[in-house]
Design goal:
The structure is a single chain. By secondary structure, this protein is of the alpha/beta class. Among the domains are: about 5-90, Roll (Ubiquitin-like (UB roll)); about 115-180, Roll (Ubiquitin-like (UB roll)), CATH 3.10.20; about 355-385 and about 505-605, 2-Layer Sandwich (Nucleotidyltransferase, domain 5), CATH 3.30.420.40; about 385-500, no CATH class. Helices cover about 30% and strands about 25% of the residues. The protein is globular and about 105 Å long. The N and C termini lie far apart (about 60 Å). It contains 20 helices and 27 strands. Bound molecules: FE2/S2 (inorganic) cluster. FE2/S2 (inorganic) cluster binds near residues 35, 36, 43, 44 and 45. FE2/S2 (inorganic) cluster binds near residues 35, 36, 38, 41 and 43.
């Protein structure tokens, strides 16, 4: 079997000849960028084949790669198969998720009120006149009727008791003993909170005695290999039990890697971690639990369950205490998941008395409005453009991404993450670039680039060469090849503007429908909370300029960081907040936008680049 070696990561794998390179990378545990699950439409799975590069490019490769690149061995992994021993260079996607881990917290504090309670006991020794069994002796001392214990925790219990002079600590969660430990371990009580995003998975290790976050770690969701959006993942999972298992294994593996990292950072023992609380969209929840998500995709978008699911760690192969509890917080609807529950918890929207809206833009866009004592939520298919999908040089927020763009003194000024040479453009950069080009008068309110041939007077001399005809219409060169890190021009295309219009139009329209339903107008909003990594970095002024948000005073717009993840931490740290989370789906009215005849009209108007 041919061997494929991936560099510079130095991972190799033997695969059958004819295996698709994207799949080979996947089998080798290599993450290669790609948003279209190998359909050849996104152009993101770029790799460089070293050695003999004599191959005929496919139409997809011709579309996404220049002739120079093709000649020097660049190809799309999903378009190539293994035909011999190969060495493949994979461009390193610098830790996009790290930005997400450094976000400011939500607006609520963590409260130490853990579900898991640890009780240290000193039991009396058995005697001829007291032959009470070991377990019953412990249960009698704990005085909690109905406590259950796993066989795995019972098996070594007799020796544990005797070797420790009848001094042990029991970790209790609800009506279950999750651990029996030697001596007094009451000072060690830990849990992990997870935000399972379609793109990024983030974990936090929390000391449950003090409700303090003691370590954070994150990774890319390896399910990305099956497509960037939830629909691609659902489609793959629908292909049979093996496919579903494959997706579940990927996410569990990534979560275990993060747990390992958290434990290594803090030297906390795995067995002292008794709980994992997770949030994620409804599809992520299904895939994490290994539940068939097939019927989420077609109307009427029905999930298999919406309640919070609780299982034992060992059942899912999660590497915390094997008897520890795993809780995935409840979903609200097929496309409004527990990540939205997290946002509501972290922002306290369910407790607030004023009128506010929260917008969480990730791979999908979820919106919540709290007004007049009601809580309403909906989702819009808006996110992928903001995460770089469908954008010619789009990328996630990582080193080298254009994150800021201004029109100043007749020039376009750019800011790159980490001040690196430009590689592409991330969501905040995309919004900024559109706002800057609108300011410069190079984009019409309709979203079309000004045609420099018809309107030469509208295009200043210094932009005449940069606004040019591309393959699919006009495009603006943000960074010329000689200044970019990729050696090619980084451009904003007419197609990119179209994607941005669709995304921002959907968010705006979703918000307007929620406000209408709540009986208030945009002016009545006291605050608009922007959640998620993107929400933290987007510039309010640019979001207002392009009409992503209704015209509001900028000081009413507040970034609240990764509120979904903060919500999972809050629900992990406090049983009262967990109960609040579990009860929330009954309090949130879900609006299905696809059934709203008014959505389309608002959406079409909202696509224009003008303040509405
Ligand atoms: S073009 Fe290969 S994954 Fe999209």
């Amino acid at each position: 079997m041919p061997k494929v070696k991936f560099t510079p990561q130095n991972k190799d794998i033997d695969v059958e000849a004819g295996t698709n390179l994207l799949q080979a990378a996947n089998q080798a545990g290599m993450y290669i960028e790609g948003d279209c699950a190998g359909r050849g439409t996104c152009g993101k799975c770029r790799i460089k084949i070293t050695g003999d590069v004599n191959f005929s490019p496919t139409a997809a490769e011709e579309k996404h790669l220049s002739s120079n690149e093709l000649e020097s061995g660049w190809a799309l992994a999903c378009q190539r198969t293994v035909d011999r021993d190969m060495i493949i260079e994979v461009p390193i996607q610098k830790d996009a998720h790290l930005r997400k881990t450094t976000l400011a917290g939500g607006v609520e504090e963590l409260v130490a009120d853990p579900v898991v309670e640890k009780v240290a006991v000193k039991l009396s020794r058995p005697a001829v006149n007291d032959q009470t069994a070991d377990l019953e002796r412990l249960l009698g001392h704990l005085e909690r009727p109905g406590l259950a214990v796993e066989l795995r925790d019972l098996s070594g219990f007799p020796s544990l008791l005797r070797e420790n002079s009848y001094s042990v600590t029991a970790a209790l969660a609800g009506n279950k003993i999750v651990s029996i430990e030697p001596g007094d371990t009451t000072d060690q009580n830990y849990g992990v909170a997870f935000d399972i995003g379609t793109t990024t998975i983030m974990g936090s290790l929390i000391d449950l005695k003090t409700a303090s976050v003691i370590a954070v770690a994150a990774s890319t969701n390896p399910q990305n290999a099956f497509g960037a959006d939830v629909i691609s993942r659902i489609t793959h999972a629908s292909g049979g039990k093996e496919n579903l298992k494959q997706l579940q294994d990927k996410v569990i593996e990534a979560v275990n890697m993060i747990i390992k990292d958290l434990l290594k950072q803090t030297r906390v023992a795995r067995d002292r971690v008794y709980e994992l609380v997770a949030v994620g969209n409804t599809t992520m929840s299904h895939l994490f639990m290994g539940v068939d998500p097939t019927y989420l995709a077609p109307a009427p978008f029905v999930p298999a369950y919406s309640r919070a699911l609780e299982v034992e760690a060992a059942e899912l192969g999660l590497k915390i205490n094997p008897s520890g509890r795993i809780t995935f917080l409840p979903n609200i609807a097929g496309y409004v998941g527990s990540d939205t529950i997290g946002v509501i918890l972290a922002t306290g929207m369910d407790l607030r008395k004023d009128n506010c809206a929260a917008i969480d833009i990730g791979t999908n866009g979820e919106l919540v409005v709290a007004a007049n004592g009601r809580l309403m939520a909906c989702s819009t298919a808006a996110g992928p453009a903001f995460e770089g999908a469908q954008i010619k040089h789009g990328m996630r927020a990582a080193a080298g991404a254009i994150e800021a763009c201004d029109y100043l003194e007749g020039e376009i000024k750019l800011g790159m993450i980490d001040d690196a040479r430009a590689i592409g453009i991330c969501g905040s950069g995309l919004i900024d670039a559109a706002a800057a080009l609108l300011d410069a008068g190079l984009i019409e309110p309709s979203g079309r680039f000004v045609n420099p041939e018809d309107n030469p007077e509208k295009v200043p001399d210094n932009f005449k060469e940069r606004l040019r005809q591309g393959k699919g219409g006009f495009e603006f060169v943000l960074v010329p090849a000689k200044e970019s890190d990729t050696g090619e021009d980084i451009v904003l295309t007419q197609g990119d503007l179209r994607e941005l219009q669709l995304a921002k139009g959907a968010i705006y329209a979703g918000l307007m429908i929620l406000l209408k339903e709540a009986g208030i107008k945009a002016d009545d909003l006291d605050q608009v909370l922007l959640a998620g990594a993107f929400g933290n970095y987007v510039r309010k002024e640019s979001a207002l300029t392009i009409g992503l948000l209704p015209p509001l005073p900028p000081d009413k717009i507040v970034a609240v960081g990764n509120a979904a993840g903060d919500g999972s931490k809050m629900a992990l740290a406090s049983k009262v907040i967990r109960e609040r989370a579990i009860a929330l789906p009954d309090k949130v009215e879900h609006l299905e936008l696809s059934t709203r005849s008014d959505f389309q009209d608002i959406f079409i108007d909202a696509m224009a680049f003008q303040k509405i």
